[in-house]
Design brief:
Blueprint lengths: L2 H8 L5 H11 L2 H16 L14 H12 L17 H20 L13 E4 L6 E4 L5 E4 L4 E4 L9 E12 L9 E5 L3 E5 L3 E7 L2 E8 L2 E4 L8 E3 L3 E6 L4 E6 L2 H4 L6 E8 H12 L2 E4 L2 H4 L2 E7 L3 H12 L3 E4 L2 E4 L1
Parallel strand pairs: 5-6, 15-18
Antiparallel strand pairs: 1-4, 2-3, 3-5, 4-5, 5-8, 6-7, 7-10, 8-9, 9-12, 10-11, 12-13, 14-16, 17-18
Helix pairs in contact: 2-5, 4-5
Protein name: Anti-FecI sigma factor, FecR
GO molecular function: sigma factor antagonist activity
Pfam families: FecR, FecR_C
Length: about 325
C-alpha cells in the first residue's frame, strides 16, 4: 500500500477498483493498526488540542461504519417512483467519503502528516507480527509488531537516504560508494545518522531507545541537546522527551535485538517496562496492581513466538499470577 493511494483515497480521488483495494487493506489487521496509529499520532501531536473529556476515535468503529455503508440499503418498491440502484462508482465514492468524513473530522485533515511525500512507500506491521523489507539501497530493516516505516521508492546518487520509523526496527545499513548519508527520523525530532552499521531502534510516542551493534552512529536529539551524541558498539541511548529523561549505558547489544530470532532477553528490566512492551507490540492493556511489583526487575530469556508464550514464560520463570481478559492483562 502506498501513501499516494491513501492520500488520494482520503481526498475522494480514486477509481472504484482503487477504493476497493484501499478498503480491503484497511480491513486487514495491518490496515486497522495503520489507521489507529494515524489517528493517535494526530491526537498526540503538539498542534492538536482536545478537551480531556473527549476520547480519540476508534479505528474499529470507523471501519464498522464503513462496512455498514457498503451493505445495500433496503428499497421500497412503488408503482409511481422508480428505484435507482447506485452505480459501482457512486458506491465507491460514498465509501471513500464515509472514511474521509470520519477521519478528517477526527484528525484535522492530517496536519500531523503534512511532511509526507505522496509517493512514499509504507510498511506497517500488525500487532505481534515481524516483517523484513529491503530498502532501495539494499539495506534491510526488520520491523517488530505494531511498527511503521516510511521511505522513498528510490534514492538517487548523492541523495541522503532517509526513512521515518514509528515503532521498533533493526537496521542493517549498506555502505554506499559515494558515502551517502543514511538518516532515520524518529518521533519528537530525534534523528539517527549512519554510514554503514547495524543497530536496533525502539521509538514509541515520547520514548526512544537506540542500541548500536556494529559501526558508529550519530544521534541528534533536537532541541534537547546542544551537540550530537556519537555512539560506539554496545552503547544504549534512552530518551523520554516528555519526562526529559536521557541516559547512555553499555549493554549486550545482541540480547537487545534477540526479538528478531524469537527470543526476549531481560537484564534488570522492570515489570512496568515489560508491560509497556506488551502494549506497544501486541496492543493489549497491561495492569500491574501492586506499585512495588511494577518496580520489580527481572532477568532471563523467554520465547517470543506469541504473546501467550511470553505470558507463560513470565508466569513460569518469575512466579507471577497473570489473569487474561479481553484486550487486558492483569499481573499480580
Amino acid at each position: 500500500m502506498t501513501e499516494q493511494l491513501l492520500q488520494r483515497y482520503f481526498a475522494n480521488q480514486v477509481t472504484p477498483d482503487e477504493a476497493r483495494r484501499v478498503l480491503d487493506w484497511l480491513n486487514t489487521e495491518a490496515g486497522q493498526v495503520y489507521l489507529q496509529a494515524r489517528i493517535d499520532a494526530q491526537f498526540n501531536g503538539a498542534e492538536w488540542l482536545v478537551p480531556d473529556t473527549v476520547s480519540a476515535p476508534d479505528a474499529e468503529r470507523i471501519l464498522s461504519a464503513i462496512r455498514s455503508r457498503m451493505e445495500p440499503e433496503p428499497a421500497t418498491l412503488s408503482a409511481e417512483i422508480p428505484v435507482r440502484r447506485l452505480s459501482t462508482w457512486t458506491q465507491a465514492m460514498r465509501w471513500a467519503a464515509v472514511l474521509a468524513g470520519f477521519v478528517l473530522l477526527a484528525t484535522g485533515a492530517f496536519t500531523a502528516y503534512k511532511q509526507w511525500y505522496p509517493d512514499d512507500l509504507i510498511c506497517q506491521t500488525a500487532f505481534g507480527k515481524i516483517s523484513t523489507l529491503t530498502l532501495p539501497d539494499g539495506s534491510t530493516v526488520t520491523l517488530n509488531g505494531n511498527s511503521r516505516l516510511r521511505y522513498a521508492p528510490r534514492w538517487a546518487s548523492h541523495q541522503t537516504r532517509e526513512v521515518w520509523l514509528d515503532g521498533e526496527g533493526y537496521f542493517r545499513v549498506t555502505h554506499q560508494q559515494n558515502h551517502e548519508r543514511f538518516v532515520v527520523h524518529l518521533p519528537n525530532k530525534l534523528n539517527i545518522e549512519v554510514l554503514g552499521t547495524q543497530f536496533n531502534v525502539m521509538a514509541r510516542q515520547a520514548r526512544a531507545k537506540v542500541v548500536l551493534n556494529t559501526g558508529k552512529i550519530r544521534l541528534d536529539v533536537g532541541e534537547q541537546a546542544k551537540e550530537k551524541l556519537v555512539m560506539r558498539p554496545g552503547d544504549l541511548f534512552y530518551a523520554d522527551v516528555k519526562a526529559k529523561v536521557y541516559y547512555r549505558k553499555h549493554v549486550d547489544a545482541a540480547a537487545q535485538a534477540a526479538w528478531q530470532s524469537g527470543k526476549l532477553t531481560f537484564d534488570g528490566t522492570t515489570l512496568q517496562e515489560v508491560a509497556q512492551m506488551l502494549k506497544d507490540t501486541y496492543g493489549v492493556n497491561v495492569i500491574i496492581t501492586d506499585p512495588a511489583l511494577q518496580r520489580q526487575t527481572i532477568s532471563g530469556t523467554i520465547p517470543n513466538q506469541s504473546m501467550q508464550t511470553i505470558l507463560n514464560g513470565l508466569t513460569t520463570l518469575f512466579d507471577l499470577h497473570i489473569t487474561q481478559q479481553p484486550n487486558q492483562i492483569i499481573i499480580q
